[in-house]
Amino acid sequence: MKNKNTKQQEFKTTREKVLFGHLISTSLKYKLWIALLLLINLVGMYAYYRQVRFGLIVTAMRDYTSWGIYISNFVFFVAISLVGSLFSSILKLNKNDWSKPLIRVSEIIAVAAIICAAVIIIIDMGRPDRFFYVITYLRIQSPIIWDVIIISTYLVISVILLYISILPDIALCRDQLTDIPNWKKRLYRITAINWNNHPKQVEKLQKVSKILGIAVLPVAFAIHTVTSWLFATTWRPGWDSTNLGPYFVSGAFMAGAAVIIFAMYIIRKELKLKEYITEMHFDKMGRLLVLLSLVYLYFNINEYLGPAFKMVGVEGEHITELFVGSYAPMYWFVQLGGLIFPIILLMFKPMRKPLPLFIISLFVVLGAWFKRFLIVIPSLQHPYLPIQNVDESYLHYNPTWEEWAITMASFASLLLIITVLIKLFPVIPLQKDVPTIETVVEPNILKNED
After folding, report:
1. Where would I find the H helices in 274-399?
2. CB under 8 Å, gap of 24 or more: what pairs does 176-184 form?
3. Contact in structure between 300 and 250 (CB atoms under 8 Å)
4. DSSP states of 107-169 as a string?
5. Cα gap 332→324, rounded to integer Å
6. What are the extents of the domains in the chain?
């Protein structure tokens, strides 16, 4: 019969081997994946070069549809960035120990998403060189300025939250990883900033982490609320609603939860972390996704029931276009495939297993992006004050290849940032003096004693 201490030592050795493994070796699959993402980015950069050189005329955006899929992407990236606050703030402060292995993944996704959101806004500008005019000639009355301020604030807090959570593990990598390139050793040495796990350092880190965990919560709610105000303060059908703030926030949490499930499955499979990201985590996330989806369903009903009941004027035209018009297939895919069917399926425990939940979360994520498309495009094509004698093409919006190339590059950039961060730093906390996985994982390893 094996001694329990012996099993614990084996667990520790296996644990470090598994969690350090991807930091040391680089597989061919990883290199090919990075090459693919860089290739997509190169195509997007060429498309953006054409857009800067010839202007926004290379896009399908015109006087009617002045916001295209760039703004849809922006709202989507802002939405999934809220997953960081969901885990690092709400679940952590509520002492949900099961969420600890997922906190760092969520924080990495949050940082990557908010960076891409900030970049896509600049891409949407016809003259990106004039971005600094927004700052030098800012008008605090403008909702655009509110968005710039809140996005910058959320980006700074998200980066600091990620850094302080990963700092002890960077020091561990500095001290224990010897068979790595010199540039990586230098990176760990610089970013560890003389961390030695001293009790005073740990105490200060925990205080800062708690303060930021509380501070990020109102900022997280504000970032999507302010984004919704960009729409609500513009006179368009479908946007003139006081429901947009909570509607956007609830949809963001739902989309963020689906993205973390998607990431969990890939990371668990590729990094061989089945002992750390367990079926219990998928079951809990499935339940959480149901709860968030039900809240979002409630706001969906609120958003469409009033206009659909009245069917007055341009609002009625907008609703008709969504329900039975040219956007109906996309609209009903969002409502059924991305919202109602996932809720029904996830009521059953077998659907909360890793693979079924991964597939369901994929549909939820697709539905979330299509939903952002439907928020932006149809409303712009039904203005309260239509423009007279415009070209027929102005009344329709079909993104050009440049827009699609830049869109694909923005998603490739998101994945590239996440992939690089996961490659450079441990994706599961290693140190015992910061939130770790031991309370979740160790009982699973040690429970089968002879």
Report:
1. 279-310, 313-323, 328-332, 341-345, 354-380
2. 176/16, 176/20, 177/20, 177/23, 177/24, 179/24, 180/23, 180/24, 184/424
3. no
4. HHHHHHHHHHHHHHHHHHSS-GGGHHHHHHT--TTSHHHHHHHHHHHHHHHHHHHHHHHHHHH
5. 9
6. 32-437
Task: Evaluate whether 78 touches 55 at the Cβ level (below 8 Å).
Answer: no
3-state secondary structure of 178: coil
Q: Which residues of 286-316 are buried (b: 16+ CB within 10 A; e: fewer)?
A: bebbbebbebbbebbeebbeebeeeeeebbe
Q: 32-437 — its CATH code?
A: 1.20.1630.10
Closest CA to 380 of 273, 236, 262: 236
For 384, which DSSP code? S
CB 48 within 8 A of CB 403: no
Q: Which residues of 421-436 are buried (b: 16+ CB within 10 A; e: fewer)?
A: bbebbbbbbbbeebbb
Distance, in Å, from the CA atom of 292 to the CA atom of 65, rounded to the nearest integer, reads 31
Please report, for the chain, how many H helices and E strands are present, in that order.
Answer: 18, 0
Confidence of residue 75 (pLDDT cuts 50, 70, 90): very high
Cα-Cα-Cα-Cα torsion 430, 431, 436, 439, nearest 10 degrees, comes to: 100
Instruction: Please report, as a single letter, which amino acid is at residue 18.
Output: V
pLDDT in tens, 429-450: 776 533 333 333 443 433 333 3
* Contact (CB, 8 A) for 448 and 77: no
Question: Which pLDDT value is given to residue 420?
Answer: 93
Instruction: Confirm whether pTM is higher than 0.85.
Output: yes
